[in-house]
């Protein structure tokens, strides 16, 4: 398990997920950056010549990536994929690829695997799956939406049943609606999964994720053995109130 902060302060969700509580969003960025760096180091120590990382978009992850950029050496040996991407051009304000590139710094030399800008969402999903290949991700960073979605996998959506590595999503509630996402099987195969959750607005979704396992909370479908949740106190308000932590 990568370095994810103090070892004696973690909680365990009812579904077995390890939860690292932090004070606020700024602390979450620091802990997440250290966890990502630790997972990358562990993959290298395990013999990986190239480390495979899948990252998500969002304001809080950006702060973690900016910190991560200075913690890791030999960026050219790291393949950076996207846990999900909007079907928009690279320079669009909604592009996760652009966000990740700018946060890490384009001079780092990392290899960013971008979604094709040509073809239908289905065509792009197939092309991205081919780019990813069969090897699992060494580490994945996910976020959690207020509605409970993770990557671009919404609660109780048919995309949760997709097989293979990627799935095209045509009707995401939050625009833009057309996206490509890693599938539940691809996320389940990852060596380390980090779920970053900050803010009281996501507290109810986090309580569902930690309290049980089911399609109403897509992240809950991932294995406890590889999952670590990094959550600030605002996000932990409802989970604490609903007592979703095991004793």
From TrEMBL:
Upper classification of the organism: unclassified sequences, metagenomes, ecological metagenomes
Pfam families: Glucosamine_iso
Domain Glucosamine/galactosamine-6-phosphate isomerase, first and last residues per copy: 25-224
InterPro entries with a match to the protein in the record: 6-phosphogluconolactonase_DevB, 6PGL, Glc/Gal-6P_isomerase, NagB/RpiA_transferase-like
GO biological process, one term: carbohydrate metabolic process
Similarity comment: family membership: Belongs to the glucosamine/galactosamine-6-phosphate isomerase family. 6-phosphogluconolactonase subfamily.
GO molecular function: 6-phosphogluconolactonase activity
CDD domains on file: 6PGL (cd01400)
Name of the protein described by the UniProt record: Unannotated protein
């Amino acid at each position: 398990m990568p370095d994810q902060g103090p070892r004696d302060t973690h909680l365990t969700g009812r579904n077995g997920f390890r939860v690292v509580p932090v004070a606020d969003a700024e602390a979450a960025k620091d802990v997440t950056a250290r966890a990502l760096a630790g997972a990358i180091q562990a993959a290298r120590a395990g013999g990986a010549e190239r480390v495979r990382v899948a990252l998500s978009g969002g304001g809080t992850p950006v702060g973690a990536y900016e910190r991560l950029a200075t913690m890791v050496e030999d960026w050219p040996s790291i393949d950076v994929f996207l846990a999900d991407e909007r079907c928009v051009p690279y320079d669009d304000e909604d592009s996760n690829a652009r966000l990740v590139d700018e946060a890490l710094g384009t001079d780092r030399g990392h290899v960013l695997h971008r979604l094709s800008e040509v073809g239908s969402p289905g065509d792009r999903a197939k092309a991205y799956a081919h780019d990813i290949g069969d090897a699992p991700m060494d580490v994945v960073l996910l976020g959690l939406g207020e509605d409970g979605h993770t990557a671009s996998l919404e609660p109780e959506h048919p995309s949760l049943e997709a097989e293979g590595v990627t799935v095209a999503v045509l009707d995401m509630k939050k625009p833009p609606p057309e996206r490509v996402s890693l599938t539940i099987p691809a996320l389940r195969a990852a060596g380390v999964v980090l779920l970053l959750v900050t803010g009281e607005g996501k507290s109810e979704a986090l309580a569902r994720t930690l309290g049980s396992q089911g399609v109403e909370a897509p992240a809950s479908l991932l294995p406890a053995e590889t999952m670590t949740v990094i959550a600030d106190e605002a996000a932990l308000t409802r989970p604490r109130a609903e007592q979703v932590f095991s004793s």
